[in-house]
From TrEMBL:
GO BP of this protein: siroheme biosynthetic process
Keyword NAD annotated: yes
The protein's name in its UniProt record: precorrin-2 dehydrogenase
Lineage of origin: Bacteria, Pseudomonadati, Bacteroidota, Sphingobacteriia, Sphingobacteriales
Reactions the enzyme catalyzes: precorrin-2 + NAD(+) = sirohydrochlorin + NADH + 2 H(+)
Key words of the record: NAD, Oxidoreductase, Porphyrin biosynthesis
Enzyme Commission number(s): 1.3.1.76
GO MF entries: ferrochelatase activity; precorrin-2 dehydrogenase activity
Pathway given in the UniProt record: Porphyrin-containing compound metabolism; siroheme biosynthesis; sirohydrochlorin from precorrin-2: step 1/1
Origin species: Pedobacter africanus
InterPro entries found in the cross-reference section: Met8-like, NAD(P)-bd_dom_sf, Sirohaem_synthase_central, Sirohaem_synthase_N
Domain Siroheme synthase central: 126-149
Pfam family of the protein (one): NAD_binding_7
Amino acid sequence: MEGNQLFPVFIKLNELHTLVIGAGPVGLEKLMALLNNSNHARVTVLAETVIDELSVFAAGFPTVDVVQKSFEASDLEGINLVVAATNNNELNAEVKREANKRGLLVNVADKPELCDFYLGSVVQKGDLKIAISTNGKSPTIAKRLKEVLTDSLPNSLNITLKQMQILRNMLKGDFSSKVQRLNEVTEILMKPLDKEQQ
Ligand SMILES: C[C@@]1(CC(=O)O)C2=NC(=C\c3[nH]c(c(CCC(=O)O)c3CC(=O)O)Cc3[nH]c(c(CC(=O)O)c3CCC(=O)O)/C=C3\N/C(=C\2)[C@@H](CCC(=O)O)[C@]3(C)CC(=O)O)/[C@H]1CCC(=O)O
Ligand SMILES: NC(=O)c1ccc[n+]([C@@H]2O[C@H](COP(=O)([O-])OP(=O)(O)OC[C@H]3O[C@@H](n4cnc5c(N)ncnc54)[C@H](O)[C@@H]3O)[C@@H](O)[C@H]2O)c1
């Protein structure tokens, strides 16, 4: 299919139960991606062997359990979201099949053809999050763009967000007059800064 057909969403991982299968370097990378965004996410990591770095990282999060065992389809019971990062392609395909049978969405790390969703590269500035995807073309460019945006977006944007929330809650009147006011006060953000302000 032409163009980028991915639909981005922001998932409340803190309210869901995620299963990560595989606890090597790639499993750790994906676990860190989950926890760096949702540090109360309930995550079960399941693997036959677990690298020390993953055990140490997981120990810092009371909502993360590490279970040392072979994967069985029954491990998917009670799970909402699945990330597979094993070194066994047949197993990765079985995880996808079994998970999809139960209506679950699966990410198989670094295997786009087996993914129902991709992980993105994420810019974080307080409440602001920008998720970047290159449609799987170049995760490295996604990472570089994250670095550029993290450097160039001012930290004060988070203060602006807080002030906007206060204003939003204070505004009286009907919906359309509130929307109009919120758009008026943010118009200035669309104007380039003059030399003295920069
Ligand atoms: C964004 C990020 C999120 C995250 O993982 O947290 C992410 N990959 C990151 C980094 C990264 N991954 C790889 C490299 C090495 C350079 C390279 O190989 O290109 C680097 C870069 C580096 O480390 O410099 C290896 C790699 N990745 C994939 C393949 C397979 C393929 O492309 O066919 C291979 C080859 C494996 C092999 O050769 O065997 C595939 C996927 N990687 C995705 C996400 C999804 C597409 C996202 C998009 O649409 O852009 C997708 C499709 C599925 C998924 O895994 O979700 C994270 C940036 C974190 C950050 O922001 O710091
Ligand atoms: N390490 C990298 O930098 C890298 C880069 C790109 C792609 N990959 C690919 O990503 C995959 C994972 O990489 P890795 O380095 O983390 O691999 P790894 O071999 O270090 O870890 C694989 C994990 O899968 C688990 N596993 C295997 N079979 C299992 C089963 N039946 N039940 C439960 N757990 C099982 C293992 O116990 C282990 O924890 C590999 O396919 C690799 O080719 C790795």
